[in-house]
Design a protein that fits this description.
GO molecular function: oxidoreductase activity
CATH topology: Ribonucleotide Reductase, subunit A
CATH architecture: Orthogonal Bundle
Structural class: mainly alpha
Protein name: Ferritin-like domain-containing protein
Distance between the termini: 48 Å
Strand content: under 5%
Radius of gyration: 20 Å
Length: 311
């Protein structure tokens, strides 16, 4: 084995792959609203080099403490957004391998992956401009929150695909959209505003995909499948959201440096939001998502934490 190669972590179970059955190959549009997301993504494509005035970032105009904070905030966003660079291709493969899945999500997800790459590029450029992207979190314990193995999970034949879409497309992408809106509302730097405007437009489609797909499939879910979906959503909130993946202030025991950086970044207008604004975004979104899921027959409980009110 080459020296640079790495083995899977021994604690991870083997992935059970689906057997490919390509025929009959169905190419007809069956989910027109999702196909429209694909067409809109193509028509609205943007270029991080051409469509953002990077000179307006002006990192030299900020004091050292602010530059250090912005560097950490945007580095963390690189860590989170880079998840899509492996997760979305795996999701495409899963849709392609599972018999009977529609063509429209497969097309749409190709544009989502490109947009995620643009987000990573922009976030990295901001971090580099403020002193250089940080390679990892300040606390070793925080790293585990980011190593989520989503590409393995979605490829596993034992994973209910609709439950995965509910947790990681409808709910997670929807939450990221609302948080990005909160960051944009507090941003005053023109370059950061421009980046977030593009990101929000993309994430609106990302979240819409998840909800549209769930709505299209809900009628055919069994009672056990609805319970599986609810359990997957609860696991996601417990194991990801409440461990500070999106909002470090939810996990100060291992993300204190990131939480402090976000507060400084927000105060400087560099693409953060005050804790109260993020808390409102999280609580409001969770309440709305719970109501939408209930309409689809999926009952998700309230989530309790001593870091904020129930949501």
């Amino acid at each position: 084995m080459p020296l640079h190669a790495t083995r899977a972590e021994p604690s991870l179970p083997p992935v059970r792959l689906l057997v490919e059955r390509r025929f009959p190959l169905e190419m007809n549009v069956t989910l027109p609203e999702i196909r429209a997301l694909y067409d809109t993504g193509k028509a609205g494509r943007w270029n991080p080099h051409r469509d953002v005035d990077w000179s307006a970032l002006a990192p030299e105009s900020y004091p050292d403490a602010v530059r250090d904070a912005a560097r950490r905030t945007w580095s963390r966003r690189v860590w989170t957004e880079a998840t899509g660079l492996t997760e979305t291709p795996a999701l495409i493969v899963r849709f392609c391998m599972e018999v009977g899945r529609e063509i429209d999500p497969k097309f749409y997800l190709t544009t989502r992956n490109t947009e995620e790459a643009w987000h990573v590029e922009c976030y990295d450029r901001i971090a580099e401009s403020f002193g250089g992207r940080l390679a990892r979190p300040s606390a070793k314990a925080y790293e585990a929150v980011f190593n989520r193995h989503l590409h393995r999970r979605v490829m596993d034949a034992g994973q209910l695909l609709d439950a995965y879409v509910a947790a990681h497309a409808a709910f997670e992408d929807g939450l990221e959209l609302e948080l990005a809106k909160a960051w944009r509302a507090a941003a005053t730097n023109p370059a950061v505003q421009s980046v977030l405007d593009h990101v929000i437009a993309d994430k609106e489609r990302h979240a819409a995909f998840g909800w549209l797909y769930l709505s299209a499939k809900a009628e055919g879910w069994s009672k056990d499948e609805r319970e599986t979906i609810a359990a997957e959503l609860s696991d996601y909130v417990r194991d990801v959201v409440l461990k500070g993946y999106h909002c470090p202030w939810l996990a100060p025991e291992h993300a204190a440096a990131e939480a402090e950086a976000d507060a400084i970044t927000a105060e400087a207008g560099l693409g953060g939001a005050p804790r109260a604004a993020e808390e409102d975004a999280l609580a409001t979104f969770a309440g709305n998502a719970r109501a939408r899921l209930a309409e689809l027959g999926v009952m998700v409980p309230l989530f309790e934490t001593n870091r904020m009110r129930s949501f």
